[in-house]
Queue: 2 jobs
Job 1
Amino acid sequence: MPSNAIPAEDFLNREPELHYLKSLSELKEKALGGNVFLEGARGMGKTELLKQLHRVLFREDHVAPFYYSFKTANLKGTYFAKDYFTRFVRQYISFQKKDSSIADHAAEPLERLMPAISSLGLYWLIDGIEDFQGHVNNNDFYWQLVAAISAPVVAAQKSGKPVIVMLDDFDAAEHLYESSLGDAHGLISLFGESMQNRLCPHVITGSAGALEAIFTDHSLLGMTERMRLGPLPEDLAAALFRTHLANLKITCAPDVRLTFLTLLRGNPLYIRNLAKAASKMQKKELTEKDLVECYGFEVSEGETAFYWSSVFNRYVQNPTKRKAMVKLLMHAIENGEMEDRGRLSRVSGLCEAETAAILDAMEASGFIRDKNAVFQDFVSALYMKEIEGRKPSDVREKIEAKYLSESEESCFELVIPMSSNAELVVAKAVEQIGINMNLDSEFLKYLQLALIEVCINAIEHSGSYEKQVFLKFITRPNKIKIIIENSGRPFSLDSLMELPVEEKLRMGMKRGWGFKLVHSIMDSVKVERVNDRTRVIMTKEIKDKEVHP
Amino acid sequence: MKSVPFSVASRLVGDAAVIYPKGYLNNLSGESLVTECGIYIGKGITKIVVNFSETDLINSIGISLLLQIIEDLKNIQGTICCTNMSKFLRDTFETLGLIQYMVVFPVESDALQYLKAGKA
């Protein structure tokens, strides 16, 4: 590492970030910059940016680069110290001699590098190696760690040449321990002094959720700026995908517009993996349908699935707890968000304390915040496999079917105030949506009535301070789904009294018809409570006779 | 859906009142429909024809107010006839079980004929 960076010409749209990071040591020396926390969704290219930065600095001579990944690091303090120290020495010599193979030969003991170090005149480094070995021989845990972590600083001070320290997945450092997990909290703060050094800017990646806690550590507070790595713009995402395909000797069919790629939200990792999936599935000329097929494979069995599985395993190792996490994530996806923890323990099937621990892990990992479709499809696929016990081919088919029909899906959103006749605005909206779908005008009247009823129920009975009703219409050629949401008093279908009209007349009750009508019109009506909101989900299948030819 | 404000027109044909609700029949408009019918009932009219040809949409509050008229007429042994109902409106009344309390005719003239013949 990090000689396996992708070719610079394939590394798109990150020039400003790369330029800024390259100048970081200069800025830090002038007290104009400090350390950088690289933020961005998983797969957005944070590690790749570090690799590119390493490559650029390696080729030049002004700043020595040091890259360390905590992803695969052994977090037992003594192992970590040795690994960190050794890797630094290797990469430093490698940089000085402009020979990347030195950094790559991890199995070669440091003693073998002594002639090279001497030839470079880096006698202070020989002293440093001997000192470190002394701490190891004395079994001095604390000084091994300090010597390892401060090695880049020592190098910068002795040589006068800045060292940029790149710490990938740095949040894992919070779990450094002495002899058993959790026995030595706060070792991460040992990085504080190194981070403060003017000759050693640090560029850090990691889960924002976990690092939030780290940056509140006193020694690290206020020294780090955030740099957000956003998605690739749509045109560049398509260009990158085509480049990967070309490298894999795959072409696109003439009419392919790659619109499906928008689902990947400009994520370079997903884009690369999808191209590789096309290669694995032996596609030669890619069609839009092939793309969906490759995607189904990718999120259920491909590299993207493997990537996310590895991330899951990092946070929850126990298989039972992992299953519980999948259930919780699926629940969050289906319901839009998480409710109170007490109720979620019923979903997970574990006790409240265990559920709370999983939720904390999910929070720290940022899984809940990751609302991208690819992650959600991975979770759905995993749920189908691990919880429902479906066959991989069934899972792929389900995912494919979702997108093959979704390509004809439209979505409209509307917010109305809780005021007189506001429901007519909704009725008008559904009328136009129906016209767009060529629906029969008489059929539309029923839909309008169902919607009007749900809206007036919300307006009349919710007691909402927000005084708004949120509506979402999702249409497909054969189905319309309407979601109506409002804050305020809970409402449940169980609370409705079903009385025949004679009884109503006898009792002088003339109201309470609304949901009877809604049920008679729609194919399914579901009422949910999500936090302080009531959500009504109604669906209606559209039959041929309800559509104008 | 026509974007017309609700209005109620009426006329007296013999001993029957014909009511023309127009637009969206909801709580506000339903009240004016009840008031209009109430005026005729107050004058001793027991036969009412509601011509729904111009009724665009209805909601459950509007329906409940229609039930009020049915009840008022029931108390004086009166008759309510409904005419020119769309399939949608008829289905809705049927779903709620209201159709048994009204006499339904395709057109207004049929209802008037029926009332004139004294079958009510």
Job 2
Amino acid sequence: MITAAIRSLLSGAVMSGTPLLYATLAELLSERAGVVNLGLEGVMLVGAVVGFVATVHTGSAAVGLVAAGLAGGLFNLVFAFVVIGRRANQLAAGLTLMFCGVGLSALIGARYVGSQIAGLPELRVPILADLPIVGPALFTHDALAYAAGPVAVLVWWVLFRTRWGLVVRAVGENPVAAFAAGKNPHAVQYQVLFLAGVLGGLAGAHLSLAVARTWAEWMTAGRGFIAVALVIFSRWHPLRAVAGALLFGGAISLQLQMQALGVPLSPFLLDMLPYLLSLAVLAVSSGRARHAVPGSLGRVFQGTQ
Amino acid sequence: MTKLFVILMSLAVSAGPWAAEAADPKLKVGILHLGSVTDGGYNQAHAEGIAVMKKNLPEVEVIQVENVPEGADAERVMENMINRGAQMIIAASFGYLEPTMRVAQKYPNVKFFHPGGYKRTPNMTTYWASTPEAFYLMGMAAGKTTKTNKIGYVVALPISFFLANINAFELGARSVNPKAETRVVFTGTFLDPGKEATAANALLEQGCDVLGVIVDSPITVVQTAEKRGAYSVGFHYIGVSKFAPKGWVTGVAFTWGNLYTRFAREVMDGKFKSEDILGGLADDFLTLAPFGAAVPKDAATLVEAKKQDFIARKAHPFQGPLNDNRGAERVKAGETFPLTDLRKMDWLVEGVVGQPR
């Protein structure tokens, strides 16, 4: 019974953590380029619904994933145009984008509530899946879940080991200096926001194609905002984001698992567990002197005049 | 705000000039849904009821609006329907009670119908289907089907009506299988398919081989059970069985068609009176979905016999003596827990693993 609980806890942590990790990486990328995107929830929903609709029509979850990524990227470009092209306030524009995404996805998805799809197939990793406890828990997932960790490493590598990543971080710290060095901060931010949109779209698609295999209005249920918090929690570092997403996903999984086990605690109390845990970690880890907030986060680069 | 956008869009579409061209119908019926009418759940059951009414009474015209939030938006949608000539309004979600009361007082000549409401006006009827008997029967079928003697339930919140359903389910399961236990996981929300899937998996890992569900849409939990080779019982709407071709046991579904036909007839014939209607299996407000292939043959006979006993009032789902799952006596031997008092049920019966609060 306890081994079953541990197995289920790990497997649930991966399942709940995967969409959170993609969303956190999306937010992390845009914040590293100096843009706060509170509209991530809307981007995820657009990705979730477009991925689902594409899968219903083509019967292929792979096509659904591509469509979800593209839709997320394009939808985020609307936000990019407003905050970069029109220099609007990022917080206001982000919240508006969120509501816009909720409405748009509801409109697109209205006819598809209750549609049936096969969804992303579960892939068993040979040999590893036969290991006791961790085998079934960690090596019988879908392709997006396996890719989540490597994608986080890729984001880290791009940000910290490539020239383009250096420019992205320079734009986030000080766009005027980046401009003086001959870079175009606006062009870089457009590129980053498209990529972030793709990741956000995939985060939504994991919910609609792999976890729930259904479309329901506002099915992200606040995960886009949890991701914004997880970025701060991970201090803008992609590898710490993996830990954050797994920890939070694990806490959600843990509270449901404790109920299934019959632990005599109030379900209301257990429902608070993921948030209590986050609060505790923030309280312990936030007091450090060295801060990782990108220097120009939330500011609009006005050009050099 | 976003839902309002959807509403405005749908109103704009249906209120176009072409809508007025049809000959004057004998009665216009407006119905408001909280969610989508293809959710395979609560909303779809009401929409199917309206479809049956429309088939029985072709002279009736229907104005149907989906995704109406509970609150001031609902009032606006109702008034819009009345302005377009609706003489009868069905506000098909519990949370529409206050808005419906307000609009009903403002328009005394329009007749209002509200499911589950606990107060009325002279031009408003409340109706509901009592679910515990049906959950008891569903529990019998599940108790006969389970091989691990563990049944899992994914439930939104520990509110009294849901606790009553789970209690009735467990009592039904235990009546045919004394070892049957029901494990409950509360997700804390009516709509979070991601959490529902995780909860379903947690229950399956604990050895449950039949899953049930009380959230907005049963699709996610039923699909998850099917994927893992487990059985499932449904709720709200029969059509959800298509998501579990192998593991379907049975389900309780609302069948509002005959009741809605009766309401429309009474309004047309001027025979409306304000009532508080509580029906059940006997009144055909509820139906038990056909059994799936997984259910043993003798279960069908047992369930049918019990159903007739319920209809004839020879049996009661909450027949004492009953203890709660903390050991306290709740219903004395020879007594029953009245079905009209379900609001007061704040405990889970012995045999249920879970916390009522």
